[in-house]
Automatic annotation (TrEMBL):
Origin species: Paenibacillus sepulcri
Family recorded in the similarity comment: Belongs to the DinB family.
Cross-referenced InterPro entries: DinB (IPR007837), DinB/YfiT-like (IPR034660)
One Pfam family per UniProt: DinB
Identification of the protein by name: DinB family protein
């Protein structure tokens, strides 16, 4: 699982670039809904990503819940704080399952019995975040902000670092 710690570090770095991009917007632009997107606003999409980590890694994977509330997240700085909690959750999850990446974890998803491994849970949350990262960049573009390059290669200039 050491490799996953390194992979998550790349995820965190690209998330930081996205947060810096969002900080160029006014708080109103960050929280204002855009009709064309299912999650409504950039803030709601960011929060949904955090909730996904909380559900899959926290609740499903480790049997614990998070108590974040969307209405308390009024700007990007507050969202960064939520993701600091996400970072701690991911580290705890990876440490807990370091030697059991193929362990079968049973739980409920959409009212149905569901079984997943720690490697699946981690992959699900990371790919889910990258899917919504693209949506957030598109929403920002719709508000007149040209998004930065959010590919992993831009995090430090070295793809194999």
């Amino acid at each position: 699982m050491e490799l996953l710690f390194k992979q998550y570090d790349y995820v965190r770095r690209t998330r930081g670039i996205l947060f810096s991009y969002c900080e160029k917007m006014t708080d109103g632009e960050y929280i204002t809904e855009i009709e064309q997107f299912g999650r409504g606003s950039i803030r709601e999409t960011h929060f949904h990503v955090a909730e996904c980590y909380a559900f899959w890694l926290g609740e499903f994977g480790m049997g614990r819940s998070c108590d974040w509330r969307l209405e308390t997240v009024v700007d990007v700085a507050a969202m960064r704080s939520v993701f600091a909690d996400v970072d701690q959750l991911v580290i705890e999850f990876l440490e807990r399952f370091a030697l059991e990446s193929d362990l079968q974890i049973e739980g409920q998803f959409n009212g149905q019995k569901f079984t997943a491994t720690p490697i699946w849970l981690f992959t699900q949350t990371v790919t889910h975040e990258f899917h919504h990262k693209g949506q957030i960049a598109t929403m920002g573009r719709m508000k007149g902000y040209i998004p930065p390059d959010l590919d992993l290669i831009m995090t430090d200039g070295l793809a194999d670092n």
